[in-house]
Amino acid sequence: MAGLKAGLRALGLEEGRDVTFDIRFTRGRLEEVPVLAASLVGTRPDLLVAMQEFSARAIRLATSKIPVVFVEVGDPFAADLVASIPRPGGNVTGVYSLVTELTPKRLEILKATFPGVRRVWAVYHTDDLSSRAAARKAQEVSAVLKLDLVAQAVRTSEELVSQLKMLRAGDGLLSPPV
């Protein structure tokens, strides 16, 4: 938010005079995101900025009229936020991290850095469509790199801890980037 505010100030927009921010947090409670999105849409803002995939998807479902700009989304096409990358369509656009496209390169770098790695874990949240797409891409390229890829979806922090305990010495971990 500090970067966004600084950028708007650089454009001559002053907070309180030209722009107002209504910043809300769910503190990791994903079940609250749709309610919060509907609440924000109900205030009829000129623009909504969504941080991360869950928020962006909830806001997209809550409005088709208010412009939405997302940041920190791994793959907006896989997350069903945009019709296509070159032509987003609708009211949603933003900046993303090329998570699916860069997955093969991330695996190559892991293999080059740790040539002895044979098994790589791709652990992701069940509802994170971007990370799910990246795990599928990792599965596609793992055979070429002679890697055994273990794609594992988790929903809770307890499930995550349980899966991470299954890693063995020498395993690699492909964390889901944002």
Q: Could you give a quick summary of the protein structure above?
A:
By secondary structure, the chain is an alpha/beta fold. The protein has helices at 2-10, 33-42, 52-62, 99-113, 129-142, 157-164, and strands at residues 48-51, 68-73, 92-96, 119-125, 148-154, 172-173.
Protein model, in words:
The protein is an alpha/beta fold and about 180 residues long. The protein has helices spanning about 1-10, 35-40, 50-60, 100-115, 130-140, 155-165, and strands at about 50, 70-75, 90-95, 120-125, 150-155, 170-175. The strands form 2 sheets. Strands 1-2-3 form a 3-stranded parallel sheet, covered by helices on one side. A 3-stranded parallel sheet has the order 5-4-6, with helices on both faces. Helix 5 links the parallel strand 4 (about 120-125) and strand 5. Helix 2 crosses helix 3 (about 50-60) and helix 4 crosses helix 5. The radius of gyration is 19 Å and the shape is elongated. The two termini are about 15 Å apart.
Strand order across the biggest sheet? 1-2-3
Q: Report how far the terminal alpha carbons are from each other.
A: 16 Å
Structural class category: alpha/beta
Specify the helix fraction band. Answer: 25-40%
What proportion of the residues form beta strands (DSSP E)?
15-25%
Estimate the global geometry from the Cα principal axes. elongated
Low-confidence stretches: none
Total helix count?
Answer: 6
Q: Would you list the SSEs in sequence order as H and E?
A: HHEHEEHEHEHE
* Overall number of strands: 6
Mean pLDDT: 91
> Which value, in Å, is the CA radius of gyration?
19 Å
The major sheet is characterized as: 3 strands, parallel
